[in-house]
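dumping the sequnces here before i forget
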Amino acid sequence: MTFRAQAFAIAGMIGLCIGLTRGQTVLSLLSLSSLFWLFAEWLIFYLQMRYQIPSLHLERLVNSEQDSNRSLWAERTIDVQIRWRQGLRLHGATLDVLDVVPENLEIVGPEINAAPREPSRSWLIANLLQFFDNTDNRIPHQRKLGGGNSPTEWRYHARVRSAGNVAFSGFRLTLESTNGLFRHVEFVKCEQSFRALPSFVDAGGYRSLIKKSNIIPRHGIHRLHRSGMGSELLELREYMPGDPFKSIAWKVSAKRDQWMTRQYESEVPARVQLIVDGSSVSRVGGFGARLLDQMTFVAASVGRMAINAGDPVGGMLCDERGVRRLTPMSGEKGFQIFLRALADFSVNPSPPPCALSQRLIDAVCGLLSQRYPELLDFKVNQVPFFLFPILPSSRGRRRLRFQIAGALSEIYGLSTQEQVALVHNDQAIAGRIQDLLNRSGIPWVAPVVASSESRDREPIGRMNQLAESILSAVGHARDNEVIVVMSDLLNCVGVLEFLLPAVKIAVAKHHRVSFVCPTTTFQRPSRRIASRFSANWSAIDLLLVAEQSRLQIQAEQLHRELQRCGASLTLSGEKNAICMIMSELDLVKTGRSRSQGALR
Amino acid sequence: MSANDNFDPATPTMGSLQPTVQQKKMFRMVGSLLQLLLVALCIEMLLGISDGLGILLRLFLFAVVMTGIVVRIGWLSLIAIQFSLFIQEPRRGQFDQVPSGLFWCIVAMLTIVAAMKLPHVHRALTDTFLRAAGMGGSGKDSQRTRPFAILSLSLHALQLLLAVVLAIVILIKIPIGRQSGRWLQSSIETGQAFWPGTLWLVTIVALFVLARELAWRKIEGSQASLYLRSVRLIANYRDLIRFERERSKQNRNESAKAQIETPQAATRLANKRP
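..and the predicted 3d for all of it:
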């Protein structure tokens, strides 16, 4: 029963009482008729609710498949098709079906016609305009299921924001009488979970150092196992600084009057070890805007290019839960396993605990009213009587707390004692709310995690874990491997001494160590932006420039420290980072000592 | 330059008699205005029962009812019409003459219900108007939805009529106002002093109980479980809250003790080192 129906009933009853008391026939008749009419409307609505909703059958096809074992790709558009079938159709009420889209999806497409409400337009004028223009402005994942001629399916398109998991939970059904007097909300579960593999890009400029076909048959079965200096000539090219002298083709150089170098086939594959740091700092933010998303993008791209060139790719995935080692793998199957491991790693674990706040309560209320509306019903989720607090607002908050505790207890199957603990212990209820929000696919943004989580709480522990991972990678490595560490180091310049010894050991073992440091702005820090200052800049622009300047200073310090140890560094998870790693791989394979000027 | 160069798709040509989008939009707007006019006439009729209302009050009530219709707030229109009746209707107290107000009541209820079901009624009437003007329906499938719309409107009208008739029957049957004196006299004569309103009251209470029972039987398993949980919580709340307070107190004491002990242990360890 909505407010309209309540107001209508109250008006009818008051009118009836006054009419009977004063002996006004028509007033009494009108009031009593309105009450009977309201009762008849309720009866019809109840019948619809009782028989129409259970007879509704909904199914969802993602990319024309219902199978949840299929994988989706980050940053690609998916096609979602909703089919519905209704056994019983009663007229007189509208049934709105809303597909609850996970946070990891972004609705795209030209069919988004939900016009934003203009703030300057008053409520009355908006209603008047709506009277003359009855266009149905709905979001693409919502449909009104109408009469017998309405289509039995609809579709919308969505873009996967980031790697990880795309979990559809179900449909939110809203049955509303045409006059808006009665409304019933129900959530129908239709769970489908898809693994979203990270996106990757072919940065180009990297090629295999093995001939695709060789007309000269090879002698014997044994090959010279020497990195980048195989016995088979690949090509002759111009000499570049850093090329070994012994590979100079003297005769050809003399003929052409230009230094030429012999490029040999690489017979020993250069392995890449990708160390991805997925600590809580890198997981804070909306899907697609996390530091971890930049890292998985770089890792997947590097993996693709390296595997294309025949080089095995391994890795270490480390976070607060521990370190998971991926053995080096090659081939298409190996690449798929690697991507799947990255996707699983991208799924957020339990968030770090935070204090209970009003925003956290609001967030869980929104979630519960969307996915568990039946558990917030006052008829079933009853609240014990309490005298204090007396103020109505405080009493309302307390009642809400009781209701949330009841709903959480039902969802998690807690005992009554634990339910009472949820009511009286802020820490306990905050933990449960966080867990529920996280399980429901809400990203790590405030209030799921405290805003202070974006700052590193334990940088030393993180550096130690990275150092251990590097040492473990060195322990498992052969000669001349490329170790790529992807981590947010910009805020850890002060505690780099815990990491640098491991880097030095790796370099001493003839490995090449590269660091990819993603930035929160998704841009390489540059001072050029600040030099183009204009008076028209907004506060956000100024904040961005200030952040860039801060990052620039930290990046310079970091670069200096790592260069001293013989490691290279690139900032932000973009194409340049991939190029840098591939140039390092190139160096390992060719035996050269300097890169060809890859942008770092 | 050929004739096709000046072709404007928005302008109807002699060859095609299909109405353009602009024409349809214009006709739709005219239809909406006509509907508003009709509603305004109805309201004027409802408010003008007698000359009891002053012009300013009448205008105000008219504005309120119109606002209620446009913004789909039926109760606002109901209150305005009730207020108009409260002022204008004479206090006769003769409920046996109720059928005389039948037509008026139906018009009033129709206006209120039309206000509450505005989009549907509006769409149906606009479609009818467009069709009458030879413009076709508003949608491609208007021909197919027409029977459903007619059926729906007929059911609504029947429901409304039934509500009004039932109200009339009840008002006639229950001895209230001046009828109560007559009823008392006749009941004394016949020796039956049972007030018939009780029967109606019992019926209403029975209907209410039935409605609650129906609503209760609809709950799901999780709701039933939650209900049992909340009932158990309410029954044992005082004991449970005492346990919880004790436990939290104990936890606090333990954590405080641990905090005190930890520095001591650290100091002991430090002292042991050479």
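Residues 112-121, 220-227, 596-600 of chain A have pLDDT under 50 and may be disordered.
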